[in-house]
Amino acid sequence: MKSNYLLIIFLLFSTFGFSQSVIVEGIVKEKATGLPIPGANIQVKNTTTGTVTDFDGAFTLKGISSGATLVVSYIGYKNFEYKVNGSNGKLAVSLEEDSKTLDEVVVIGYGSQKRREVTGAVSVVDNKTLEILKPVKIEQALQGTVSGVNVTTQSGSPGAALDIRIRGIATNGENRPTTIIDGYVGELGLLNPNDIESITVLKDAQAAIYGTIGANGVILVTTKSGKKNAKARISYNTYVGFQEASKKLNLLNATEYGLLLNESYANGGAALPYNDVTGLGKGTNWQDEVISNSVPIINHDISISGGSDKVTYAVSGSHLDQEGIVGEQKSGFLRNTARVSLTADVSEKLKLKTNVIYTYFNRKSLSENGLGSVLFNALNIPSVLSPRNDSGAYTVVPNTPGLGNEIINPLAQIENTNNDYNFKKLNGNFGLEYKLIDGLTLSSSMGFNTSNAKSRDFAKAISYGGKVFDVVRSSVTQGAINDNDYSFDAFATYTKSIADDHNFVVTLGNTIYKQWGNGLYATGYDVPNNSWDFADIGLTTGIVDAKTNSSYTYDERRLSYFGRMQYDYKGKYLLSAMIRRDASTKFGPGNKVGYFPSFTAGWVISDEGFFGEDKKVNFMKLRASYGTLGNDQIPNNGYVSLLSGEATYVFNGSLVNGTATGQIANPDLKWEEARKFDVGMDMKLFNNKVSLVADYFIDTRQDLLIPNIPVSGITGVYAPGASAPTVNAGSVRNSGLEFSVDYKHDFSENLNMSVGYNVTFLKNEVLEVNNGTGFIEGGSFGVGQPAPSRMQVGLPIGYFYGYKTDGVFQNQAEVDAHPSQLALGANAAPGDIKFVDTNADGKIDANDRTDIGNPIPQATMGFNLQMNYKNLDFAVYTFASVGNDMVRNYERTLSDANRLNYVLDRWTGEGTSNYVPRVTTGATANNVFSDYFVEDASYLRIQNIQLGYTLNPKVSELAKITKLRFYAGVNNLYTFTKYKGFDPGASNGNPIGGGIDYGFYPIPRTYLLGLNINF
């Protein structure tokens, strides 16, 4: 009996032993860096019990049975499993990065998909890339990191706009893609880069879900949010930088200038301007006078994020202050942003989301990219002139025929430039999600943008010595603009699986969009004290007869319905169909409604049984898409005629100002239509270390909006403000190939590397221009010359149209044997440029103009490298553009203007040069627009190089700092190019007339020292 009692007691203790619960504590870190991972998920296997790590990567689980298995997981890392033993203890978990990113979720518009199920041409830029690149504007982060995307600068001045082109230039109008920020239409360039979680680029028919605003591609921005059950995380980032010109042009010094001028005057039969050049010396380097070094840029960014079981939050603010390398504060840019993001689980079924962003910036600017701009003057003003005269005043440039009446002292120009532009914007969205039944979610979101801008420009009464820029009467022009829009989206998403193999996702919804605003401008004359300090219309005292004010107002709306069905069979066969119906007030009564369907499909070949267990090819997917999208980014009210013109009448013997009809109405106006075809392949090789993506695409844009279609002269289209109608009468096709390859490998616990390369080959061709002439002209060259760019059937949009050259005449015999060039303005002589008789009619005239260059690159590519060794990290990003031409138009073709030093290789006698013509004050045809002024602007640019060091977490944690990283970097380190100008990658943004260099403000080289701190 006694033994039985002992047995019972033993069994009871055994039961308690097996059923005892323990407390498991631990910390989760990255294996590669040793940094904590906040928001990692810890789950008891096969149960609903679990938690997430806090900001420090720590977690605690109570009441866990001995023998239970914990699964630790985090997106982008391999899962870690741990079997709980019978004692309490602290667990240290190191997660390895998982190269199998196929299960990552990709935003595709009104929903998301796993990456392996995506059937469209979609590219993603994550926040790690943004952290390395440190772009002032987010657009810069897309250059070289995403295939098929080309970003060009309109200027290197702080705050200047950047142009994004996705798969080429498809229209003579607006080519910018639509940006969707957390579900609402926004503006990419105004965001703080540190607020961005990811950027998704939709390049093909996948964007058809956005209808009339998707033809140019769609950029989806997801901003950062807090994480559930995470302690408050404070992150502070700052950097200080110093800027300098990345390139300066090689101009003639004073002695070289004097010698060249003497030769020019001698060849023209005029008296020499300099009898003795020995005392001229180096003279003034005007570039050094206007371009500064060590120009500061500073940025601060702070964010706080976290959350409980029901609520998450993220709050951030940033401050950027950047001076310009030309004019310093006169071309400065200041930007402040603030953001609040909240999500709340109101109940198990209802979720609330909100995200509000405030942006303020102030920008000052100088005259750029044109005849008489600051840099134009700095390049053309003679080096023999000094910045100031003996009395200390700015030197006045002589008003002589050899220097024209527009070249002025650029330092005086900077000093007398005064303007101010202030911009404030509040935008964001409020959203609700409600799980009605299992698999059915109802979503609604209201997005809004409201902005106010104020501008003030002061024209000081000043004389530059009888130049066209002389201001006889001081004035101030002020403007106030208010722009608003809102969108309301409501849609339902139903997810259903049948027999575990057939999976459906159906989305149905509608969008209401309204955009409205107004602007008011006015000018006042005779500013008190002729001073910027008193430049306000309320203080001006002048009276003028002409109208000095203007205003506008607009109100546009769009109503849309959309639907999408996604289907897959075992995740192997993938289908998606979309349709969107848009009704827009921008178009005439018969064209208000449009339908935009698209289809995509995919086949995961590697899931097929016949594929086998090939270890070299881990994943292979074929995909294809075709769809129709629209572009309604055109001026408002084009289908009606407004009283927007000017008119002056003689009434009772006096001139009376009135209004007149503006652009002639076209009630048949409708949106441009893009038909996009894409076929692609995604692959992962060698244990997922290598990723390959390849796409072939054809984008045909139809019904282009062509302005100024010829009409009967009876209607009168030549009055001020009047114009011919805009008509859908053109077509352009872009076709090409995209390819990208990425390689990631962990060589050891201390060393890992990531390498990426992408390339895009592009062909652009105009298919139709039905405007009566068969071409559209654009751009400008020199003074009084015909437009140098055209859009014409069979050629790239915006190609350069001018004369071909065939070297330089070496002697009079060559001149006599060549067709006459007199029609170009002067008889040829030895040393002049020899033009080609392209039509073989025995003479050189305007009919010999032809295709002499293409501003669109044939290929663009990016190469990026990231390496980590212990606590050191290194990254380099590059971009290349091949086959794009640029027009050298920053040289004033006047006899006394300064020149670039390539003129030292000019023709001075037979056999001396067959490229650079002679110099002379006499009449020649050397300055007409020809391929002599068109240069190959191919280039390779080291965009960013950065070296960082992260303090050992064991050391930084002593100060309660979870991460402390120092880094040094250089942005725009160097550009390899043969182009003579400042920036071979710049453009003025015009599809017809882009690639013409009027003296682009150079992009600065920036040296950065930065600090990242997480608490």
TrEMBL record:
Pfam families: CarbopepD_reg_2, Plug, TonB_dep_Rec_b-barrel. The keyword Transport applies. Residues 395-799 form the TonB-dependent receptor-like beta-barrel domain. It is a multi-pass membrane protein. Keywords: Cell outer membrane, Membrane, Receptor, Signal, TonB box, Transmembrane, Transmembrane beta strand, Transport. It is found in: Cell outer membrane. Transmembrane segments: none annotated. InterPro entries: Beta-barrel_TonB, Beta-barrel_TonB_sf, CarboxyPept-like_regulatory, Plug_dom, Plug_dom_sf, TonB-dep_OMP_SusC/RagA, TonB-dep_OMP_SusC/RagA_CS, TonB-dep_rcpt-like. Residues 115-218 form the TonB-dependent receptor plug domain. Belongs to the TonB-dependent receptor family. This is TonB-dependent receptor. It comes from Flavobacterium frigidarium.
